[in-house]
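Work through this protein:
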Amino acid sequence: MSGRATFGLAPMEGVSELPFRLWLAQVSAPAFASTPFLRATDTFPAQIPIDFAAELTREWDVPYQLIPQVMTADPDDFVRTARLLLSHAEFVDLNCGCPSPNPVSGGAGSSLLKDPALFVGFAERMADALPAQSFSIKMRTGFDDTAAFDVLTHGLRSVPLKQLTVHGRTRRDRYDGSSRWDLIQKAAEQLPCSVVGSGDILGVDSMPPIHAMAPSVSRFIVGRGALRNPWIFLELRNQKPVAIRRSLVQKALACFALLTDLGMDHQIDRLEPLVQKGLWKTSAGTHSEAWAALYDELCVAHSGKILPLKDLELDRITLGRVKMVWNYLRSSLPAPYFEPLLLRSKSLGELLSGLERLDPADESFLVSHRSEWDWLFTSSRQKPTPAASEPIQLASITT
């Protein structure tokens, strides 16, 4: 199974936007990536937002397939929005999995799973209006429970989907408990389309039990696992943990910051020359020289010159994004990196310089899943034991 498995980046609201996708392509090159959802209504969008799916609309040469995702409470709004996108994309994904209160209260996201007849009717109306295999669906195993899961998936058997993605939790579960890979396998057995599985992929050691429970599934998406370990796609391809150094982490985070700042306020024209230059033909991965070269390119594009890490002064929103990524990443690094003081840094330069203080030796180490921090990435954030641990505040991620 592992030899034919394909892994992609899950859609994450507020995270998997264009700068993050470009950065993750440099870090570990997922085979495909999804946009965060585009919320479609009866009046929006009139045209595709400039930075929603720039890889497609601007025909950028990037190493991953981009899947645009749309969320709506009305199939007609999905059809209208999909038609805007299908001149650029192979297919468009419908979000039926988001557990956030606002979409759910508006009848979108995972709320579509409350009524199987409504859910299936929604899909059938889209199928009547769009070409076969021009749309897909991402769903959870149910709203309050999994009782209707078989009915929900069985109703899709005659719908010409491109694929069905199943996050193995209900809306009520949010991110607690374990992903139900047995149900994902059942969907794969029932449906003629490809089924993509999601939930609890945290590294190469996660996969044997998943393959055992869902042997028919060969396509997977990774969400929070890619935040905790951005090198996870390289690890999953090579079937072994990735070894890196502190200095590489510094340059990688600096590159993420520069990409984020360059793309701030929808300034896609600042990113386009870098893509057209061919910087995404290969990924930097674990190669220090490649990260250094990318950093220099991004620095010149941003500031007109190459700056030392300590002199990087970027937008406060950019700093917040970097702290969010660091908050997750440090849970997969050696213990000294978990120190909370870096999260109080007042500038990017201060944060990056602080890494050198934590690890002055700059020796190689493995990026690996540390299960003692798993509770921090659940919805309830309940400690499983009374062991003393320094709590950290994590940004809310929805998929």
Q: What stands out?
A: The chain has two domains: 6-237, 243-368.
